[in-house]
Design goal:
InterPro entries: Cell_cycle_regulator_Mat89Bb (IPR019355). Keywords: Cell cycle, Cell division, Coiled coil, Cytoplasm, Developmental protein, Differentiation, Meiosis, Mitosis, Nucleus, Spermatogenesis. It is found in: Cytoplasm, Perinuclear region; Nucleus. With about 700 residues, the protein is of the alpha+beta class. It has 3 domains: about 230 residues, von Willebrand factor, type A domain (Rossmann fold), CATH 3.40.50; about 140 residues, Ku70, Chain: A, Domain 2, CATH 2.40.290; about 130 residues, no CATH class. The chain is built from 21 helices and 20 strands. The strands form 3 sheets. Strands 11, 12, 13, 14, 15, 16, 17, 18, 19 and 20 form a 10-stranded mixed β-sheet that branches. It has a 7-stranded mixed β-sheet with strand order 6-5-1-7-8-10-9, sandwiched between helices. A 3-stranded antiparallel β-sheet has the order 2-4-3. A hairpin with a 6-residue loop joins strand 13 and strand 14. The radius of gyration is 44 Å and the shape is elongated.
C-alpha cells in the first residue's frame, strides 16, 4: 500500500480543443439492401461513409481501458480516480470501493459528454483539475482511515502514515514553455497542500507524487512539445512528458501501465479457432495478455531463451509462447504438470476482439492450456499454464529446470554408484552455529542482519559437501590436534593464547612434513591419492587449511596463523607461495633470516664461554615460553641452531689461550723423528695461523 500505484488519478482535459476530430477515419459497412443516412457533415468515400472519433473520446476510452487492466489484475488495493477539468474540476468517483468499478465511471462519463465546440470562455483550463487532483491525493483512503483511527487510539504511536500517488494528465499544450509552466504550477500547489496538511488532522501530507503529462494531438499533426524522461523536480515531485497522436493514446497508456505496475506482455500464438463465416474450417490466431512480470522472471535456468518481439504499433516487448494441447483442470490432469513456481492473474489487451473472447470463454469453461517456449540447446519445453478458478484466469510459471523433488541423491544406499559420504553432521553443526536469534531491542536491526549475511557468505564460500572431496575433515580422527585447531580458528574473539596453540599445531604439521610421514587418511578414497607424492599431499592439506582460515579471518591473530600456514605450504614446494614470500621479503628491505638472527630471543653464539649444555637448555626453555611472539619461521631457525650447537667444539680452540695461534698437527714432526732415527734431515714443523674469533675454521 505504500507504492506510487496505490493512488492513481486521471485528469482529463475537457476544454473546447478536445472536441475536434482525431482525423483517424473509420469506414462504415451496411447490410445488403440498406443504405445509410445522407448527411453532408459526414465525409464519404467511394466505398461508403466514414467517421472519426474526437480527441475527448480517444482520451476517455484509453484511460478507462487503463483502469480496466488495473482492476482486472488487482481487484483490491489499487485505486483509480477520474477528474474532468473545464471551467471547474468535476469529480467522477472517490476513493471508496463502491465507486471503483467500470459501470460507475462509464455512467459518469456519459453524463459529462463531449466538450462543446462553440463555447467561448477564458475559464477553461486543465489547472482546475490538477488542483483537485492534489487535494484528492491528500484525502485518506479507507485503509488509511483505519490506520489513522488506530494511531489515535494508541497514544505512544507517532508513526507517519505513508501517502504516495500518481497523477496522469491528458491535455494538449502549445510548446515546451507551456508544459514547464504547467509543472511549476503543479509543484507550487503541491507544496502549499503539504503545508496545509501539517495544520489539519483529517488530510495527509503527500510524500511523493509522480506527474505524467500526455500531450494529445490529432493524427498527422506536428507539435512543438518534445518527449522527456522522468526527472525529479524536488524530493516530493517527479514528472515526465509524452506526446502522442489521438489514435495512439491506447498504446501509449498500455506501455506506461507496464512500468507503473511492473507488468509483462505474453502473446499466445497458434490458437486454433473456427472461422465465423465457415464453421468447417479453422485458422490460427494470436491473443496478447498482460500479467505480473514475475511470471517470466520466476523461471530459473540458463538454458531458457524467452522469445521476445515488438508488436506492430507498440513500444514494448512481448514474449511469444505457443499454444499446446489443452486439458482439463482436474487433479488427474494437473498431476502430470511440472511444479508451479508462481501464479498471477491475466487480462487480455484487446478485450473486445473475437480471439480474446474465445480464449476467455474456453478457459472459463474449465479447460487449461500449456504454453511452449524454445530452449537454447534446441527443442521446446512447457513453461507456462493458463487456467481459470473462481471466474478469474491465472498464468502459472512452471519449473522447467531439474527439480529438487525428482531423483534426489541417496544418502543411505551404497550400491549403484550413489554418493554415500555426505557431511550431514558437519552441515547440521554449521547450520546450528549460524542460527538467527531474535533480538530484544529493535535498534540496529538492519546492521545486524547485514553483518550476519556477510559472515554467513564468507564462511560458506568453502564447504565440501562430501568427505571424499576434502582432506582436512578426513584427518580429524587420526590427527587429534586438527579438531582443536579448527575450533580455535572458528573463534571470532581469538586471543594470543589461541594463536600460540595454533602455532604449535602448525609446527607439528611442519615436523611431520619434514620427516616425510604419511598422512593418516581414514575414509578418503585411496584411489584418489595414488601417484601423489607426500610433499604434494601436505601442500594440498595446507592449501585447504588456508581456504578455511580465510573464511574465518576476523582479527590480527588469524592473519598470523594464515602467514604461518603459507610458510609451511612454501616449505612443501608450492612455487606460487614461494614467489609471494620472496617478493614480500624483498619489498620489506630486510630478510626474515636477518630478523631472526638479530633477535634477542635467538640462542647465544657458540663461541661464547657459556655455550654449554646448561645454557642451551636454558635458552630453548626461554624460546618455548616466548614462542608466541615469533613466527613459525623463527621457531624453525632456532631449532636448527640448537641442533648445530650440539656439535663437538674444535680442540684447537679449546686448548689454545685467547690471543695465541693454535698449532696444527703439533705431534706430526716428532712422530717422524722417532720412526726414522737414521734420517739426516729433520722435518720442519708447519704451523697454520688460526684465529679464535668468529672466522675460525670449523671441524
Amino acid at each position: 500500500m505504500y507504492d506510487l500505484n496505490q493512488k492513481t488519478i486521471f485528469v482529463l482535459d475537457h476544454t473546447q480543443y478536445f472536441s475536434i476530430s482525431s482525423e483517424d477515419y473509420i469506414a462504415l459497412d451496411y447490410l445488403k439492401g440498406k443504405t445509410g443516412p445522407s448527411n453532408d457533415a459526414i465525409p464519404s468515400t467511394s466505398s461508403g461513409l466514414q467517421f472519426s472519433k474526437s480527441l475527448w473520446t480517444c482520451s476517455v476510452e484509453s484511460s478507462i481501458e487503463y483502469c480496466r487492466i488495473v482492476w482486472d489484475l488487482f481487484p483490491r488495493g489499487k485505486l483509480v480516480r477520474f477528474i474532468v477539468s473545464d471551467t471547474a474540476a468535476h469529480i467522477v468517483n472517490t476513493w471508496k470501493f463502491a465507486t471503483q468499478n467500470m459501470s460507475h465511471v462509464l455512467n459518469a462519463m456519459a453524463l459529462v459528454g463531449v466538450p462543446q465546440r462553440n463555447t467561448q470562455s477564458s475559464d477553461y483550463s486543465v489547472i482546475h483539475g490538477l488542483r483537485a487532483a492534489i487535494e484528492a491525493l491528500a484525502e485518506p483512503t479507507e485503509q488509511q482511515l483505519n490506520l489513522m483511527q488506530a494511531a489515535e487510539n494508541t497514544v505512544t504511536t507517532n508513526e507517519k502514515i505513508p501517502n504516495k500517488g500518481r497523477v496522469i494528465c491528458v491535455t494538449s499544450a502549445r510548446d515546451n514553455p507551456s508544459m514547464k509552466s504547467l509543472e511549476d504550477i503543479f509543484h507550487n500547489v503541491l507544496m502549499q497542500q503539504n503545508t496545509l496538511a501539517m495544520t489539519q488532522k483529517k488530510i495527509l501530507s503527500i510524500d511523493h507524487c509522480h506527474l505524467v503529462i500526455i500531450n494529445v494531438v490529432p493524427m498527422n499533426v506536428d507539435t512543438l512539445v518534445t518527449n522527456r524522461k522522468q526527472i525529479d523536480l524536488s524530493s516530493c515531485l517527479s514528472t515526465e512528458i509524452h506526446t502522442s497522436s489521438a489514435p495512439e493514446i491506447s498504446n501509449k497508456l498500455t506501455h506506461l501501465i507496464m512500468s507503473h505496475y511492473d507488468l509483462a506482455s505474453t502473446t499466445v500464438t497458434g490458437i486454433p479457432m473456427k472461422e465465423e463465416q465457415n464453421a468447417n474450417s479453422s485458422a490460427n490466431y494470436d491473443v496478447e495478455i498482460l500479467h505480473a512480470r514475475n511470471a517470466h522472471t520466476a523461471i530459473c535456468g540458463t538454458e531458457v531463451l524467452l522469445p521476445t518481439s515488438i508488436k506492430e504499433g507498440a513500444e514494448y516487448e512481448t514474449v511469444t509462447l505457443k499454444w499446446c494441447t489443452p486439458r482439463g483442470c482436474g487433479a488427474s490432469d494437473m498431476s502430470a504438470c511440472p511444479p508451479c513456481l508462481a501464479q498471477h492473474r491475466v487480462t487480455p489487451v484487446d478485450v473486445t476482439s473475437r480471439p480474446s473472447s474465445c480464449l476467455i470463454n474456453f478457459l472459463l469453461n474449465g479447460r487449461s492450456v500449456l504454453l511452449e517456449m524454445p530452449r537454447k540447446a534446441g527443442g521446446k519445453t512447457t513453461s507456462h499454464l493458463l487456467s481459470a478458478r473462481g471466474g478469474e484466469i491465472f498464468i502459472h510459471s512452471l519449473q522447467i529446470t531439474r527439480s529438487c523433488l525428482e531423483d534426489p541423491p541417496s544418502i543411505s544406499e551404497g550400491p549403484g554408484g550413489r554418493v554415500v559420504d555426505y557431511r550431514i553432521s558437519d552441515f547440521a553443526a554449521f547450520v546450528k552455529i549460524h542460527r538467527f536469534v531474535p533480538l530484544k531491542s529493535k535498534s540496529n536491526c538492519e546492521d545486524n542482519l547485514h553483518r550476519t549475511r556477510d559472515r554467513l557468505h564468507k564462511r560458506s564460500r568453502y564447504f565440501p559437501l562430501t568427505l571424499n572431496t576434502t582432506m582436512v575433515h578426513n584427518l580429524q580422527r587420526n590427527m587429534p590436534w586438527l579438531s582443536n585447531f579448527l575450533r580455535k580458528i572458528a573463534k571470532e574473539d581469538m586471543d594470543k593464547t589461541d594463536e600460540v596453540q595454533c602455532q604449535q599445531n602448525i609446527f607439528e604439521l611442519y615436523t611431520a612434513a619434514s620427516r616425510g610421514e604419511l598422512l593418516p587418511f581414514a575414509t578418503m578414497n585411496s584411489n584418489r591419492l595414488k601417484g601423489i607424492k607426500k610433499t604434494e599431499q601436505y601442500r594440498l592439506l595446507c592449501a585447504e587449511l588456508e581456504m578455511i582460515i580465510r573464511g574465518y579471518a576476523t582479527n590480527s591473530h588469524h592473519k598470523v596463523i594464515l602467514e604461518n600456514i603459507q610458510n609451511v605450504r612454501a616449505a612443501c614446494g608450492d612455487a606460487s607461495i614461494k614467489a609471494e614470500n620472496e617478493n614480500s621479503r624483498d619489498s620489506s628491505g630486510k630478510s626474515i633470516i636477518r630478523a631472526t638472527t638479530d633477535s634477542p630471543l635467538s640462542p647465544p653464539h657458540s663461541m661464547d664461554s657459556s655455550s654449554n649444555n646448561a645454557s642451551i637448555l636454558k635458552a630453548n626453555k626461554r624460546n618455548l615460553i616466548n614462542a608466541g611472539q615469533r613466527t613459525l619461521f623463527d621457531i624453525v631457525i632456532n631449532v636448527e641452531r640448537s641442533q648445530n650447537s650440539k656439535r663437538p667444539e674444535f680442540t684447537g680452540r679449546l686448548c689454545t689461550p685467547t690471543g695465541q695461534v693454535a698449532k696444527l698437527y703439533p705431534d706430526f714432526g716428532s712422530k717422524e723423528k722417532e720412526a726414522g732415527s737414521a734420517a739426516s734431515v729433520a722435518t720442519k714443523d708447519e704451523t697454520l695461523p688460526i684465529k679464535t674469533d668468529g672466522s675460525s675454521l670449523r671441524s
